Amino acid sequence: MRHGVARFVTGFLALPLGLYLFYVVWPFVQAAGYSLTDWGGYSDTQNFVGLDNYVRLLSDELIRKAFWHNVFFLITVPLFTIALALFLAFLLNVGGREDRAGIRGVFGSGIYKIIFFFPQVLSLVVIAVMWQQIYRSDGQGLINGLMIKIGLVDADNPIAFTSDPEPFLGVPAVLWWLLLIAVWSGAGFYMVLFSAAMQSIPKDIYEAALLDGASRFHTFFRITLPLLRDTVSVAWVYLGFIALDMYALVFVMTPSQGGPNHASEIFASVLNFTAFQKGQFGYACAMGVALAIFTILLAAAQLRITRRERIEY
Amino acid sequence: MVIYPLLWVVMSALKTDSEVIRQPLSLIPAKLNWDNFARAWGAGHLGSFFLNTVLVLAGSVTLTMLLGSMAAYALARYEFRGNRLIYYVFLSGLTLPVYLAAVPLFKGVYNTSVYLPMLGPNKHLMLILVYVAWSLSFTVFFMHSFFRTLPNTIAEAAMVDGASHSRLFFSVMLPMSKPGLISIGIFNVLGQWNQWYLPTLLMQSVAGEEKNQVIAQGLIELSVNQGYKSDWSGLFAGVTMAMLPVLVVYIIFQRQVQSGLTAGVGK
Predict the structure, then answer these.
(1) Residue B232: closest CA among chain A residues belongs to which residue?
(2) Per UniProt, what is one Pfam family of this protein (chain A) (predicted)?
(3) Using CB atoms within 10 A of its CB, is residue A22 exposed (0-12), middle (13-18) or buried (19+)?
(4) Which residues of B touch A123 (CB under 8 A)?
(5) Which residues of A touch B251 (CB under 8 A)?
(6) What is the mean pLDDT of each successive set of 10 residues along chain B, which is 267 residues long?
(7) What is this structure's pTM?
């Protein structure tokens, strides 16, 4: 009997684990090894250079720029997505007409929930290609066309969107335009998530608050938000990962994949450029390891901060 | 706000090129130009992109589900040495950035082709195996928690009746996990349909070899490298066709998608 179990478990684990180790774990281990060499990628010569690549990383102007752009997305993507999603979820679930119950969503909220979720299932690629057309800078894109029609934008001088390196509020304008896409595509999912959480809040809490004469503004900040804290913090962790992975958007939306003039460069774009265009695989691997360490530290920090006692209801 | 851009894309797919350029904002085309779709499908290679994607997905999703539930089942319901360790090894894949593995993965696939040509770059079988490996983390994680919830009494009864371990899995446990399997299955379909980075990395297309590409990658090449030249309506038609299957799958299974994605989150 015991013997049968061992054989069964081995048989069930061998193939999946083998495949996983070979195509996922092993490349990561190798990357860590390559990061200590000066391997160029297309030749066989590789010399052990110790931590040289990491030292170089610290003084690399481009990487520093990319790092701050990553940080920008890391802060803004969760912040704006969660704010918008909370607002929409609140409207859908408790923002409806104040009738007897006073706690229902606006009309047709079920359909809204399906539609708002659409961007989540669309691939980032479809979204990116679509927004390329929305952002077209020759006056025929969706936004430029609309703005010219209303007279907000000069037809000879349309908005440049993702090819605009001019700083806006301290960061290149192109980053804000990329942020808009990320928020647009993510808000629906988190709205559904927050809706589910809001619906599990007992209605009598709201009714009691309304009887006490609380305004909608107060209900939201005093009741809904504190009770949603768990969900919001999980969303924050998810969005943190999404924010680190803006590469597809940068790749498709920006001129020369990180441009103009490196204004939208992020970790992943620099890594790919270094590895496959400049042929410096060893150095690129060091960037990857740095990114991984950064990600893991971040995840650990987020889990620490958000792990507090739950509110029971 | 959400639906207008989507609608705009679909309607632009039905316009003529000059309409797209002269009246980009109007939603209603003068005449419905269905041949945009035919042109994107044929000359734009979208037909072969679709076929490639469907073939790869049929293989990879089936294999992901089978291997993922086998591993999750063994880990969830049997106690043995190294159980926790293996589970955490699978989980670790959720946090590591794919870009870190890019270079060795690319090189590994390249080297493999010397001994196993069918696993070389630009080969669909290789793409299937890589998709499976990279989808295992989440699948194992998801199915693990699902198998844990199944009651023990049924397993014990089956064992008393003389069923073997694997028979118990295939004829009792797997059928019982159908709701979980459907959720994670749709999740894998959506995730792998949308894959872009892995195929771009591993299917480094040589000019004229677009026929191997999958949909997301093909679409990007067409829009970034201007494969459509200035065939705007063709590009819109391509985007529309690429998002259609996903939306259909989503609308049919939206309950499972939402409950799957929100599983374990919130209260």
Answers:
(1) A133
(2) BPD_transp_1
(3) middle
(4) 193-196, 216, 242-243, 246
(5) 114
(6) 76 77 68 80 81 92 95 92 92 80 84 80 87 93 88 85 88 87 86 84 68 80 61 80 83 74 49
(7) 0.81
